[in-house]
Write a structure and sequence with these properties.
The chain is mostly helical and 610 residues long. It is built from 27 helices and 10 strands. Among the domains are: 109-184, no CATH class; 562-609, no CATH class. The chain is elongated and about 100 Å long.
Length: 610
């Protein structure tokens, strides 16, 4: 008995000697683990391993993956290291998604009158002589000019032409459309709209540049759901990171607007898998208690990037250099090769226990935590009962730089306040309140747009308030979706939710830039009513706050009764098994056999447990 105790205390030391270091500071146990994994699967080794009581605190309670996470540590240095690695994607994503307002900014423009430009007339002279004035808008027309032979007056000069009475009469002169424009380059020296003339009859191409971003995210959400489940989270993230670096820099060298749109679309297809993969990895290494906190912190770099964007755009005036500058942070994504682990939940689902153990050992080492022996953990993973959580569910008014900066600034409280709101109101109550508050803000904004005496600060406040609440709701939905669906279907469910979200994102540029020019109140009305409907539907969702993340499709019941069929073959109803339940392990029948049958580790049994 004394010898057994000494051997057990020496086991961790002996295992340490078999470790070898791998990239990123992780410890590779693969040779040692593979041998132990084989021994577990042979001749009842699993039950024997479970009788070995570990000295690590909490080891006797490893019945679920959440218990295993508690041993590794759920809020240590390893967890924050992975949070930082995952959040790089969030920071770079906003720079690429929201930059279209500066890359494609459209300054004041008017028809290009070739004879007058070649004669060196000033902009003011051309506008006064050749461009009709619209009394309703208080500006000169942007796509029309007087029908006139300007070569007759070009050499005379503006003053002499006016003095000679040759200026077209605004009341009687006919007006024609033009197909070439001049732009006011005071604020923007070069943009996509200026370079490729995305105004007037070509105006639809401008919102298409942003819709391409949303279409790309939609396609990426559909494709990534398969790739993340088939090949794992980490390979998809790493390949996506490499492609994002190449594509974002290539976009700055686009030769035409068509090439620009295609590159934007492909870039965001890749970003769809990148963002989903990062979020899934982070959420699947979090315990139920820490998930809201880490889910909130994951989105903070989005707000930081949102605030940094107008500052960068203010300093870099030419769109090609601006696109290249915004692409520089994507180089940080290469760091994920060393610091991004595979999701342990996904690995267990695939039966890859040795790789799971390697990651958990790495995490425990960084967190300065102790784990039981490799053999014990491998047995626990094979027998693990995964807790079921819930049933499855089949800028006309202000400077654009300042407005975008405050838009990013408002994202900080939208994420930070989300965490305590979930604690006090729960996820369902918080989501319903956020959608309702957003609807009220936007609908009030719709009303005051028709009040000329309404202060501009009130319009800005309502606009940013609605944005802040809808931003919080958008991120809360992601956390909600992680908890509503099991590991087997989680990436697919989140991707399908993103598909519907991107349908709205695809339509929004046309609603705002095209329909908003016709009826100024329509965009706010559409978005406000949509938020109101979402507030009501949110009340139908089940509450998940404090629940363990869902793993199984259905709970499994312990049944230690052996029944015999007519052919004398015993069929044992196996199910959730706690690896440290020694009373169950030692529950022997009169003939000395255990009444709890050992379920072989096959692909079918693994999927039934996950």
């Amino acid at each position: 008995m004394e010898s057994t105790e000494k051997d057990r205390r020496k086991a961790p030391t002996e295992e340490t000697g078999n470790e070898r270091q791998t990239g990123g500071g992780r410890t590779d146990h693969s040779e040692n683990v593979d041998n132990k994994e084989e021994s577990i699967k042979s001749e009842g080794g699993g039950e024997a391993a479970l009788t070995n009581v570990e000295s690590v605190d909490g080891a006797e309670n490893i019945a679920t993956f959440e218990n295993l996470l508690q041993l590794v540590g759920t809020s240590g240095r390893w967890n924050y290291l992975i949070l930082i690695a995952c959040s790089i994607c969030t920071f770079t994503s906003v720079l690429q998604m929201m930059s279209y307002q500066f890359l494609g900014a459209t300054p004041d423009h008017w028809c290009h009158v070739t004879p007058l430009v070649e004669a060196n007339w000033t902009e003011e002279q051309i506008l006064s002589f050749a461009i009709p004035y619209n009394n309703d808008t208080g500006k000169h027309e942007t796509c029309q000019m007087y029908e006139y032979d300007y070569s007759l007056v070009a050499d005379l000069g503006y003053e002499e032409a006016v003095a000679s009475g040759l200026m077209p009469e605004s009341d009687n002169a006919s007006v024609v459309a033009c197909y070439s424009r001049d732009f006011n380059l005071t604020q923007y020296q070069s943009t996509v709209s200026i370079e490729w003339d995305l105004v007037c009859e070509r105006r639809a191409l401008y919102p298409t540049t942003q819709s391409a971003v949303q279409v790309g995210r939609l396609i990426g959400a559909i494709i990534s759901s398969y790739l993340l489940d088939r090949f794992g989270r980490r390979p998809v993230v790493l390949w996506s990171s490499l492609l994002v670096v190449v594509l974002t820099f290539a976009t700055s060298a686009s030769s035409s607007v068509e090439v620009y749109i295609i590159l934007k679309l492909v870039t965001n297809v890749v970003y769809g898998g990148l963002s989903s993969g990062n979020f899934l990895i982070l959420m699947e290494i979090c315990s139920a208690k820490e998930r809201s906190k880490f889910g909130t912190l994951f989105m903070l770099p989005w707000a930081l990037g949102y605030m940094a964007l107008p500052g960068i755009a203010y300093l870099v005036k030419r769109w090609r250099w601006l696109q290249a500058t915004l692409s520089l942070p994507t180089l940080l994504l290469t760091l994920q090769y060393w610091f991004m682990p595979e999701s342990p939940r996904w690995l267990i689902l695939q039966g890859r226990y040795s790789q799971t153990l390697e990651i958990l050992r790495w995490g425990a080492k960084v967190n300065r935590r102790s784990l039981p022996s490799d053999q014990y953990l491998l047995t626990a993973m094979e027998k693990m009962s995964l807790t079921v959580g819930l049933p499855s569910l089949a800028s006309h008014y202000v400077d654009p730089y300042i407005y975008i900066f405050f838009g990013g600034l408002m994202e900080v409280p939208s994420y930070l306040l989300l965490w305590p709101a979930i604690v006090f109101l729960g996820k369902v109550g918080t989501m319903s309140f956020l959608f309702l508050f957003s609807a009220i803000s936007i609908l009030l904004l719709t009303y005051i747009l028709y009040l000329p005496e309404a202060p501009i600060l009130a319009k800005i406040f309502l606009s940013l308030s609605g944005k802040m609440s809808i931003t919080s709701a958008n991120h809360l939905i992601k956390i909600f979706a992680v908890e509503l669906f099991p590991t087997k279907y989680r990436s697919m469910a989140i991707s399908q939710a993103k598909v519907f979200a991107k349908l709205g994102s695809i339509c929004s540029p046309y609603i705002i830039d095209i329909l908003g020019d016709v009826l100024v109140w329509v965009p706010s009305a559409v978005l406000g009513i949509s938020s109101l409907v979402a507030a009501g539907l949110s009340c139908l969702l089940p509450e998940t706050t404090g629940r363990n993340i869902q793993e199984d499709e259905a709970p499994r019941q312990v049944n230690t009764t052996v029944t015999h069929e007519t052919d004398s073959r015993a069929t044992v109803a196996t199910e959730a098994f706690s690896p440290m339940d020694t009373s169950s392990v030692n529950n022997k029948s009169p003939d000395g056999q255990s009444n709890t049958a050992y379920e072989p580790d096959t692909e079918t049994s693994r999927k039934s447990r996950f």
